[in-house]
Design a protein that fits this description.
binds beta-D-glucopyranose; mainly beta; seven-stranded antiparallel beta sheet; 2 helices; 29 strands
Length: 375
């Protein structure tokens, strides 16, 4: 293992001496892809001792060590021990998603009067960027120590026509594990031709620790008065539906499992929650969109974002067949995703906020997963 940055001494003032910690970035080989490309695994450790491991393959957060209310660290994300498992079959564990997070109906959209056909990979639809999305490419990685905490800058240039998308897209994703126990993700992108873009992050969280049962006892708050319903192939209908009086109302903290098995067409289509909520905040402004609390460990995660929506996915396609880290298996609903993003299938719904990016413009998206504890 290589230590990449000089250790940064934390404040050693007074009584905090005993707990003084240092932030660091280390790297080690994560192996070689089946195409022969070398992959590195970086570990960012902040002054509080929390750490995030990130693979240059797929920008994947493979491990996230966060303290519980007694100060005990657990890994709160699902994933694999080996690169080959991510390459073989991963339901986007921890991945950087692009060019377009979520589904585009039949992989088709029009832009400037031209129709584009994307790679389809999900029941005839295009999901999370297509067959070889940003979760399956090797990113150029540069570690940097910032005032906020240790950081990793990932860059990738997606060629014009890749997976069917127009324009050469130059993407930067900067992951910082701040000294306030936040995993902060900042994405920027530019293009040389009119295109569409919608990047997001796909960690499966279990705040009780990965492999520690299902997530149905977690309490969820979604600051949204509306959501975007889907049809039976999980494609957004284009409507914005009030959550009031439905199992989609999470405006007050509610146990995830309370209503998940209710008789409800939307829940039936998705096998649980797998929907986009309309964020109640000013567009483009960073604000809290979701909060999750795990009563036993006391861990709390707030999700802040600049994006107009957030997908809440309750891990309905997990079925116990994947063997994860430390040999743990991941049964039905044993992890949840909160993916801040533009609404699904936006290019085909002119009433949704635009996902177009033109030459000269810079796409920017900030997502923060902020951890704390509650007694
Ligand atoms: C989607 C699910 C999909 C999953 C892939 C989520 O973002 O909403 O429908 O199955 O990603 O693992």
């Amino acid at each position: 293992m290589k230590l990449l940055t000089p250790l940064i001494a934390a404040s050693l003032a007074g009584a905090s001496l005993m707990h003084a910690a240092e932030s660091s970035i280390t790297s080690k080989s994560f192996g070689t892809t089946t195409n022969g490309v070398k992959v590195e695994l970086y570990t960012l450790t902040n002054e509080k001792g929390a750490s995030a491991s990130i693979s240059s393959y797929g920008g994947i957060v493979t491990k996230l060590l966060i303290p519980d209310r007694s100060g005990k660290f657990d890994d709160v994300v699902l994933g694999f021990d080996k690169l080959s498992s991510y390459e073989k079959k991963s339901p986007y564990f921890g991945a950087l998603i692009g060019r377009y997070g979520n589904r585009i109906a039949k992989g088709k959209f029009s832009l400037d009067g031209e129709t584009y056909t994307l790679a389809t990979n999900n029941n005839g639809q295009s999901l999370h960027g297509g067959i070889k999305g940003f979760d399956k490419v090797v990113w150029q990685a540069t570690p940097v120590v910032t005032k906020q905490g240790p950081s990793l800058k990932l860059t990738y240039t997606s060629k014009d026509g890749e997976e069917g998308y127009p324009g050469t897209l130059s993407v930067t994703a900067t992951y910082t594990l701040t000294n306030k126990n936040e995993l902060k993700l900042v994405y920027t992108a530019t293009t040389d031709k009119d295109t569409i873009v919608n990047l997001t992050h796909h960690s499966y969280f279990n705040l009780a620790g990965q492999g520690n049962g299902d997530i149905l006892g977690h309490l969820l708050t979604l600051k949204s008065g509306k959501y975007t319903p889907i049809d039976k192939v999980l494609i957004t209908t284009g409507e914005l539906t009030p959550v009031k009086g439905t199992p989609f109302d999470f405006r007050k903290a509610t146990v995830i499992g309370d209503r998940i098995n209710q008789e409800n067409e939307q829940l039936k289509f998705a096998g649980g929650y797998d929907h986009n909520w309309v964020a109640s905040k000013l567009p483009g402004h960073l604000g809290v969109v979701a909060k999750v609390e795990e009563p036993k460990s006391g861990r709390v995660m707030e999700v802040l974002s600049t994006e107009p929506g957030v997908q809440f996915y309750s891990g309905n396609f997990l079925d116990g067949t994947l063997v994860g880290k430390e040999g743990k298996v991941y049964p039905f609903r044993s992890g949840f995703c909160l993916e801040p993003q533009h609404y699904p299938d936006s290019p085909n719904h002119p009433n949704f906020p635009s996902v177009e990016l033109k030459p000269g413009q810079t796409y920017k998206n900030t997502i923060i997963y902020r951890f704390s504890t509650k007694s």
